[in-house]
Design goal:
Length: 73
């Protein structure tokens, strides 16, 4: 499995991405796929990055489940 980055936030034309071990990487939006959103998972593809839609959906579902459980308590 390749290294994954998660888009933490987008500010001033830059995506601030969190990597493994809590490290952060700043990537120009112009170097990333169009339509990128906060919370998207990125994987390197040799020419830049691609959005890993399956991993993004899996993580969003896990966070929604956690949030739903927290609301019940």
């Amino acid at each position: 499995m390749s290294i994954i980055l998660i888009v933490d936030r987008i500010e001033k034309g830059v995506a601030v991405c969190e990597g493994e071990g809590g490290t952060f990487k700043h990537i120009l939006l112009s170097a990333l796929p169009p339509g990128l959103r906060e919370g998207d998972c990125l994987r390197p593809d040799g020419e830049g990055y691609i959005i890993d839609k399956e991993e993004t959906a899996r993580r969003r579902a896990a966070l929604k489940s956690l949030f739903d459980r927290l609301k019940k308590t």
